[in-house]
Amino acid sequence: MTKEMICILCPNGCNLVVYFDEKNPDGFKVENALCPKGKEYAQSEILDPRRTIATSVRVEDGEIPLVSVKIDRPIPKNKIFDVMREIKKLKLKAPIRSGTILISKVAGTEANVIATKTVERVK
Amino acid sequence: MIERDVVIIGAGPAGLACAVKLKEIGVSDVLLVEREKKLGGILNQCIHDGFGLHNFKESLTGPEYIERYVERLKKFNIDVLSDTMVVNLFQDKSMILSGPWGRERIRAKAIVLAMGCRERTAGAIGLAGSRPAGIYTAGVAQRLMNIDNYMVGNEVVILGSGDVGLIMARRLTLEGARVLMVLEKLPYSSGLPRNIVQCLEDYGIPLYLKTTVTKVYGKARVEGVEYVSLDDDGKPIPGSERFVKCDTLLLSVGLIPENELSREAGVEIHPITGGPIVNDTYQTNIDGVFAAGNVLHVHDLADWASMEGELVAEFAKRYLEGELSKAKRWIDVKAGKGIRYVLPHKISGERDVNFLFRVDSPYKNRYIIVRDKDRVIKKRRVINLHPAVMENINVKSEEMKGIESLEVMVE
């Protein structure tokens, strides 16, 4: 089978052409990738598509009312809204340091939810 | 009057990188001025990842990217005045600063303009209909949602397929809103291809090309919009009007370099980029006034804006040392066939130049050519060219020896 896809790993957005046979996962061939990651991406996108997400969480007593967060590794695409639901349950109090793990292994995935911004306490 | 060696106006990705680089290469008297309380500019609200792939070799969120520079800024003890506005900028490189601490006139030997850009608004695109609540530019909606904790709406139409709009389509969806459609008047998206995939296709949000909003309905709040298909000349096709019910309209219809200060000081502005006209040292028509980042031309990536800031730091240092000799003559760089603009606008021919340019529409399997009349200086084959993607081509000074003109074109 042949499939065209745009690699989303970086802003180059390579237009990949992927040749594959679902019965033989080793037989992947990828054209037009500017870097080796393109092949990995194509393979993962067809067999097990994954994404990272970023969102924000309410912080009490902070200099701003929200702290930005991300997950530290890609999760299966169909888990995105499960992960969002878990993140929404968080209740935080300032100060929050950038890099702090807020939830480990969120929603049964391998990913941790991490603060990406420092929010100082104001009160 | 207080005198400083270098004053950088704006502490976004370009200004921060420029300040850090200046210290690294031994310029000690640097002042960085930022109008917001927090350093980092727009990246504070860009909480998604994809920043730093070039400069840090990893995918960072906007706030993390800024943090990397702010840490170095602190390490080098660089003078920062935040919550401070440059209210006037004069041709003699003096300026009036105003902040909660008071007001002061200072003068700099060299100035780096790094004020970034702002969004084109509903007024700027002549959007017809009423002006109820619920119309936001994409960046304002991003700030409200990611910093101020306001949800902007539930049923959203996005006009324009710029990157901020695409990012907001995903953001709104994650927060539970329904993004009904993204409309783009051009026959192609103006956002990066990767954002079409990961922000629209992933969430089943349709992108309608050659389509625009013709009317906004609603008194107190947006109640819906009328949209219409456009023909090949961009004119509405009669009878193609449709109505969609929505409570929010986001506009992602372009960014404009913010050059009020530059204009006031007498800096010449380029009609296409909306940023200063610069030579191959990134100097404007005023000696010692440099420009970097989105104030000069709108970049695709924060990484490029930062790199431009670093490049300008090198030139500013040499300027202070009196080593940036005036060119014997300036050659205007022509944006030829297929090119919307090319930077720098003027070259001496004595320096290596990395030309940055955008094409005027998508092309496949073409050559990028740099030439002096009939003499081809450089030629490179490119598979894909897209107006949303900034391209570059490097030309060495040896290759430009004896040139009389210079043109970059697509063939």
Characterization of this structure:
The complex is a heterodimer of chains A (123) and B (411). With 123 residues, chain A is α+β, with helices and mostly antiparallel strands. Chain A is built from two helices and ten strands, in the order βββαββββαβββ. Chain A has a five-stranded mixed β-sheet with strand order 8-5-6-10-9. Chain A has a three-stranded antiparallel β-sheet with strand order 1-2-3, with helices on one face. Chain A has a two-stranded antiparallel ribbon with strand order 4-7. The longest helix of chain A is centred in the middle third of the chain and has 11 residues. Chain A starts with a strand and ends in an 8-residue tail after the last strand. Chain B is an alpha/beta fold and 411 residues long. Chain B folds into three domains: 191 residues, FAD/NAD(P)-binding domain (3-Layer(bba) Sandwich); 133 residues, FAD/NAD(P)-binding domain (3-Layer(bba) Sandwich); 85 residues, Immunoglobulin-like, CATH 2.60.40. In chain B, 19% of the residues lie in helices and 34% in strands. In chain B, strands 1, 2, 5, 6, 7, 8 and 19 form a seven-stranded mixed β-sheet that branches. In chain B, helix 5 links the parallel strand 12 and strand 13. In chain B, helix 1 packs parallel to helix 2, helix 3 runs parallel beside helix 4 and helix 4 packs parallel to helix 5. The mean pLDDT of chain B is 95. Chains A and B meet through strand 5, strand 6 and helix 2 of A and helix 2 and helix 5 of B.
Shape of chain A: elongated
- Count of structural domains of chain A: 2
Strand ordering within the main sheet of chain A: 8-5-6-10-9
Number of beta strands of chain A: 10
Classify the oligomer.
heterodimer
| Overall average pLDDT of chain A | 90
Structural category of chain B: alpha/beta
- What CATH architecture label of the largest domain in chain B applies? 3-Layer(bba) Sandwich
Percent of residues of chain B in helical segments?
Answer: 10-25%
Radius of gyration of chain A, Cα only, in angstroms? 19 Å
Superfamily (CATH H level) name of the largest domain in chain A: CPE0013-like
Gap from first CA to last CA of chain A:
61 Å
Rg from Cα of chain B: 22 Å
Average pLDDT confidence of chain B is 95
The largest pleated sheet of chain B is described as:
7 strands, mixed
CATH topology of the largest domain in chain A: CPE0013-like fold
The CATH homologous superfamily name of the largest domain in chain B equals FAD/NAD(P)-binding domain
Q: Estimate percent helicity of chain A.
A: 10-25%
CATH topology of the largest domain in chain B: FAD/NAD(P)-binding domain
